Amino acid sequence: MELKISLNKNFCTPKDVAIVIWENMMLSKELEFVYQTIKIGTEIIKPKEINIEYVSKVVCEYFSIPVESLQLKTRKREIVQARQIAMMFSHRIVKKGTAEIGREIGDKDHATVLHACKTVDNLYQTDRRFRNQIDELEAILKSHKKLIVTN
Fold first, then answer.
1. What is the CATH number of the domain that holds 46?
2. Count of domains observed in the chain
3. Could you report the per-residue pLDDT of 25-63, keeping only the tens digit for each?
4. Is 98 buried (19+), middle (13-18) or exposed (0-12) by CB count in 10 A?
């Protein structure tokens, strides 16, 4: 990892410093994610195609929660948010119908999936940290890295 910050006042602004810090924080988060993935005995496999199960596993791995928790009828924020994110990515990337997504993720109906997509969109627009998490997850999903627990 190499930091490139110019000490010349003409080139180094607080925005430049903030960008460098943010980039290194993201790298640190990615490294932590890889470390946790290896630590808990997962393997990286390139999928043949992205499906709802794959999206759910990636989201749960990212947030360090068990995949089974998406099926629970709980209102804990971290579970609800992970479920909503998995629903949104299943709808946008996997291109499955809302009824099918709802059945597979928490046995919810199609309206819940639509609400999840809208909620994720709203948070994406208003919360910078949430936006960064969604962008990271989208990059993982689109690069076709697959995380499967091998326990």
1. 1.10.1750.10
2. 1
3. 655 655 566 555 544 444 445 456 788 999 999 999 999
4. buried
